[in-house]
Write a structure and sequence with these properties.
The protein is an alpha+beta fold and about 290 residues long. The chain folds into 3 domains: about 5-95 and about 185-215, D-Maltodextrin-Binding Protein, domain 2 (3-Layer(aba) Sandwich), CATH 3.40.190; about 95-185, D-Maltodextrin-Binding Protein, domain 2, CATH 3.40.190.10; about 220-285, Alpha-Beta Plaits. It has 8 helices and 16 strands. The chain has helices spanning about 15-25, 55-60, 75-80, 125-135, 165-170, 200-215, 230-235, 265-275, and strands at about 5-10, 30, 40, 45-50, 70, 85-90, 95-105, 120, 140, 160-165, 175-185, 185-190, 220-225, 245-250, 250-260, 280-285. Strands 2-3-4-1-5-12-6 form a 7-stranded mixed β-sheet. The chain has a 5-stranded mixed β-sheet with strand order 9-8-10-7-11. It starts with 5 loop residues before the first strand and ends in a 5-residue tail after the last strand. It binds 1-O-pyrophosphono-5-O-phosphono-alpha-D-ribofuranose and zinc ion. 1-O-pyrophosphono-5-O-phosphono-alpha-D-ribofuranose binds near residues 148, 165, 167 and 168.
Length: about 290
């Protein structure tokens, strides 16, 4: 009998497809793109990637056909049938928001403005929950795509659709109002138990993916600083825990400060550090983190 392999469902084509593969490679898994379009094998671990339509990913993972999946939170939240997979973590790419939008002359003043209106969307379940939560009675028109043309065709007064750059809304003379779901790619997992043989592999994949998403955007910052101004300098560093402070040879008044910043380090931050007496400030990318 062949040994078990971990199965990860990924989007075959579309908004997250390439980025999902890049993310998997960043976690150290070498993808072999063979002749089989439906299944890519991982060369250096017993893992298969099942390449499917994104709408099918929550179903595959929910039913245990795949152990894990990478999918937009919007797709996960829209699904209502069957066992719902667990969202293990957000992966930090493919960000987009599900928003209510309407022609620019529509006076939007909170969810109640939608009462009695028709709203076109490809996300009827998420929209229904939003309307219910806000106690708004409105009609939902479900469309598979091209939702943004619905107001012009008088099919609906407003829409509820994904907004990334905002270009689609702009082209169609629509303005976004409420955000009803903040989405990005997430790692999802089947609720059922994993084969014990695969548990250590699954744990290591999760840890690596956590590391990849944490290290992206994070920076390693080094500088020299006057010892007396350390509290001030620590305060300025964005999203850093306790920094590492080491003595500088031959100097009692100054120290070297090293810190991992989880948030973007802007020029303004460097200027503030300089004003606080820091010198020789270096900002370095982080390749891996665990
Ligand atoms: C989404 C959405 C908009 C567009 C928004 O469609 O439905 O059409 O992206 O992006 P923008 O704000 O950057 O213009 P998607 O590309 O996912 O394809 P689909 O509508 O065909 O599913
Ligand atoms: Zn679209």
């Amino acid at each position: 009998m062949s040994s078990p392999r971990l199965r990860i469902a990924v989007q075959k084509s579309g908004r997250l497809a390439d980025k999902s593969l890049e993310f998997i490679e960043a976690a150290g898994l070498r993808i072999v793109k063979g002749a089989n379009e439906l299944l890519y094998r991982i060369e250096n671990a017993p893992i298969d990637l099942l390449r499917v339509r994104d709408d099918d990913i929550p179903t595959f993972v929910g039913d245990g056909v795949a152990d894990f999946g990478i999918v937009g939170r919007n797709v996960l939240e829209e699904r209502v049938e069957g066992e719902k997979p667990i969202e293990v973590m957000a992966l930090g790419f493919g960000r987009c928001d599900l928003r209510i939008a309407a022609p620019k002359d529509f006076m939007y003043d909170g969810p109640q403005s939608l009462a009695g209106e028709r709203i076109a969307t490809s996300y009827p379940n998420i929209l229904r929950r939003f309307l219910k939560k806000n106690d708004v009675k409105a009609e939902i028109v479900t469309m598979r795509g091209a939702v943004e043309v619905a107001p012009r065709l008088k099919l609906a007064r407003a829409i509820c659709d994904l907004v990334s750059t905002g270009a689609t809304l702009e082209t169609n003379g629509l303005a976004a109002t409420e955000t009803i779901l903040e989405s990005e790619a997430v790692l999802i997992q089947c609720r059922g138990p994993l084969s014990p043989d695969l548990r250590p592999l699954a744990d290591s994949i999760i840890a690596r993916m956590r590391g990849v998403s944490a290290s992206r955007g994070a920076k390693y910052v080094m500088m020299n600083a006057p010892r007396v101004r350390l509290p001030e300098i620590t305060e300025i560093l964005p999203g850093a825990g306790a920094p590492t402070v080491t003595p500088l040879a031959g100097r009692d008044d100054a120290v070297a400060v090293h810190a991992v910043c989880q948030e973007s380090v802007f020029w303004e931050t460097l200027e503030k550090l300089k004003s606080a007496g820091a010198s020789a400030i270096l900002v370095l990318p982080i390749e891996k983190m665990m």
